[in-house]
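step 3/5: co-fold with magnesium ion
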Amino acid sequence: MAAVELTDLRKSFGTLDIIKGVDLAIDPGEFVVFVGPSGCGKSTLLRMIAGLEDITSGELRIGGEVMNGVDPSQRGIAMVFQSYALYPHMTVRENMGFALKFAGIARAEIDRRVDDAAGTLGLGALMDRKPKALSGGQRQRVAIGRAIVRDPKVFLFDEPLSNLDAELRVHMRVEIAKLHKRLQSTIIYVTHDQVEAMTLADKIVVLRSGIVEQVGRPLDLYDDPANMFVAGFIGSPK
Ligand code: ADP
Ligand code: MG
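step 4/5: write tokens
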């Protein structure tokens, strides 16, 4: 069974058709990267999967269950955004545990999960700090930690590294690859960075104007692009 399945998924904002019939099946444990130019609908598609945007038509399944209209908190997903959106007045530990507290999970279990994720992400020494006392990379780690503690079936990342400087971006890219290997989780990752897509993805989905141009393994897209658009996009790193 697919971990995530989109069937003729569509989204309009008023009279504007933004996502124009996307079909896609994502296997459990697969690292899938959505690429495409700015404005092609990557974030919108991710937000539809997360439940942050309504689905105009078509069907979304997560873990085999139809998720159209299901509350975001009930989808078994966790999303990491480009802006870290940490709570400034809370410590790292509190930031990471906050959503679990609201889900009614016991304190001891919250601490166990938070410590576990902190270990994975190398945050152990920073647990009592507030976000303003962290570097950009550390903040993004906390944001990822906040997702990990929820033990989601699917991680959604929307350009998580694009606010970081080039060196840190490369470092965090390696960290995310390790994380995927360790957790064996299903990941849908949006980026407009070709190198990030080529190095992280099991499968790349190339989007243009709300349509899937091609789906394939990175090297297959590179060697055998379906058209000039894909060739231009995959073949010419910025
Ligand atoms: P990407 O993430 O690929 O850069 P987006 O998914 O953010 O693209 O946006 C795709 C298109 O949808 C853009 O043209 C954008 O202006 C439009 N769009 C996104 N959100 C809204 C909205 N709430 N209302 C109207 N148009 C929107
Ligand atoms: Mg976007």
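step 5/5: annotate
The longest strand covers residues 16-26.
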